[in-house]
Amino acid sequence: MLSRDDLLYYERRAEEEIARAQAAATAHAVQAHYRLATLYLDRIYPAANDDAADGGELSAPAAPTPRP
User: Fold this and answer.
1) CB neighbours of 46 closer than 8 A, spacing ≥ 6?
2) Number of domains the chain is built from
């Protein structure tokens, strides 16, 4: 179980990565930031990740399609 401080940290980092993805200039950067955000969110909501629910390591799912 995450401490409150850890939860707040991961939540803040996910939000920061989403903001960076939205401001990114290239598709590669958008994908990288969304993947990082997903990893932080998986720490908060591990049951949403099939690997985490099985006790495995977290892995980054495919990033959403970047905006044009």
Assistant:
1) 52, 53, 58
2) 1
Q: CA 14, CA 20: separation in Å to the nearest integer? A: 10
Give the closest residue to 18 by CA, choosing from 34, 42, 32, 1.
34
Answer for the pair 41, 10: CB distance below 8 angstroms, yes or no: yes
Evaluate whether 30 touches 24 at the Cβ level (below 8 Å).
yes
Burial (Cβ within 10 Å: 0-12, 13-18, ≥19) of residue 45? exposed
**63 token code pair:** 């990033």
Domain that includes residue 36, residue range: 4-53
pLDDT tens, residue by residue, 11-48: 999 999 999 999 999 999 999 999 999 999 999 998 87
